[in-house]
């Protein structure tokens, strides 16, 4: 069951990333597989931090910093 939920989430993140790439909102040179894994890791980190009682504003700032990696353009 956990594997099914994880697979569904990752599929949603993949669709989300591809849609954002099509609109020019993220670096479309990134691999969708890498981006999907990154988004999944970051979302789990956010949920864990909030569950452990971290300050929401700090978690938000950290998430914004992490997700900014998706919007940077490649230097290749």
Give the averaged pLDDT, no decimals: 93
Number of helices: 3
Largest sheet features: none
Low-confidence stretches: none
- The whole-angstrom Rg is 13 Å
Q: Write down how many β-strands occur, each being a DSSP E stretch of 2 or more residues.
A: 0
Helix content: over 70%
Large-scale geometry: flat
Helix/strand-derived class?
mainly alpha
Instruction: Give the terminus-to-terminus CA distance.
Output: 40 Å
Q: What features would you describe in this structure?
A:
This protein is mainly α. The chain has one domain. The protein is built from 3 helices and no strands. It has helices at 2-22, 32-51, 56-71.
Element layout with pairings:
Elements: H1 2-22, H2 32-51, H3 56-71
Keywords:
76 residues, mainly alpha, 3 helices
Characterize this entry briefly.
It contains 3 helices and no strands. With 76 residues, the chain is an all-alpha fold.
